[in-house]
Amino acid sequence: MSLNKETEQDNFWLSAKGQHVRVPYLPNLFLSWKAKLHPDYERARDEVLNPWIRTWVDDDMTCRKLQKAEFGVFAAILCADAPFDRLCTVAKYFAWYFIWDDILTNTPVFDCGALQGQPLAMKEYRDASMEYIKHQLLPENPCPDLSVYPLELQKALECWEEVGVHIRSVCDRGTCEVLFEAMLAYISAVGDANALFHDGSVPSVEAYWWRRDYAAGVYPTIATIPFALGVDITPAYAAIPEMQALWKSTSYLVHITNDMLSLRKELRDGQIENIVPVLMLNEGLNINEAIQRSYHFAEENARGVESTGAALLSRADGKHSDVAKAFTRGCMDIAAGLIHWSYSGQRYFKASDLDAENVLHFYAVSKEKMVHVGGVNVNLPILTPKMYSKIPAVAAGSLVAMVCGGLWYLKLLV
């Protein structure tokens, strides 16, 4: 279903503004699951992860944002019983997704990534990324020359070297091949997901999920389970229907729940690349109807994680029993652990935003964007595509937001 971005998306913003949004308490999807964290995750964060982020991320604001995200919490769930060094490596791996993804993702006009608006350069860097990851996991393959890229882009890949070396030292070749194939699919898809919206159309629900399935890094995360839990897997066993069904249910559940929890932030950032607006625009729903539909999808896939995990265990023979147990546990920890991570931190909301029954409440607001100007965060109105087209190109200068009499004004200082 193709919709006109100039009319339908603008109408979406008008219809969404001011709606009272209610997001159900997502931990209820897994009532029997209890969060178990590695006992040393705070030490891993303070002594290893945060210094590592400071080493590889030069921009102070981005560095603080990544440190505040508390990747160590999610890693500590997946690695609850793992050796300390594996916990640290998995935490770095999870942080790396955000470091690298920000470079490839087409970001809004006031928050440009290093390759935003440069499709050829983006493709070349994506290809180099594939070659670099392949070299780290399967070192007989050549390492690409990264010196042709700006330092920021070099560091976004080079920081993964110690991750790859550690994984390769622990896991056998088959496991490294499974991880690389998952990484290959992810790297190929990143930067393309938002293109579904870029040409003025809104994708069908099916098209959105097909692209989202590979572009969010869930499959590579699942493929780290052998490293975290101390097993190895062959490509053939990773391809059996029961294993693939478990991965698919886990992936869909992670995407759905993340879209629901990130909705408020994305609306405030002027973003529409989310299952809730896609459902609204395709099916004529209001926000809360779309959220309830999303929650129904989440319930289906939560039960799917449980049933496909049970099917995998029932088929496993002695040779694959430990692998099946690891993936059944690991996929549950990934799906439920990411929800726990969102509720335990402040990435999308604060505890005070929840009511007595832990329902998240907020009001959909006009599109706004936080911009860093002269060391100060200011809110600018997020303009519609028509309004953006009327802003002249400025060779040099800064965009400053001014509040006068309760109205927003923009002033270009050249």
UniProtKB/TrEMBL annotation:
SUPFAM superfamilies: Terpenoid synthases (SSF48576). It comes from the Eukaryota. Its EC number is 4.2.3.-. This is Terpene synthase. InterPro entries: Isoprenoid_synthase_dom_sf, Terpene_cyclase-like_2. Keywords: Lyase, Magnesium, Membrane, Metal-binding, Transmembrane, Transmembrane helix. Belongs to the terpene synthase family. It comes from Aspergillus calidoustus. GO terms for biological process: isoprenoid biosynthetic process. The chain crosses the membrane at residues 391-410. Its cofactor is Mg(2+). GO terms for molecular function: metal ion binding; terpene synthase activity.
